Amino acid sequence: MTDGSIASWQVHEVSWDDLHDTGTPGSHHARVVTFLKDQGVQAIVVDHVGDGMQRMLATLSIPLLPSTPGDAKASVLAAVQEAKS
Asked: How far apart are CA 81 and CA 85, in angstroms?
């Protein structure tokens, strides 16, 4: 974020929906952790994650911010503004 705007935006095809039931739940969470760490993710804007993923993200100290319907970039901006207030 720079001056209330998104300075950089990347889209990664991770196929987590397809991979979700591949292997154990722990292996799925490990793939997610590796991706988040590799990308330097500091917060996640999302409408739903399961209890296990919530615990894993809490362990990593990665906050979950609420999403809003519609455009993903607008949702990120709204979540950041809400988190600041």
From this structure: 7
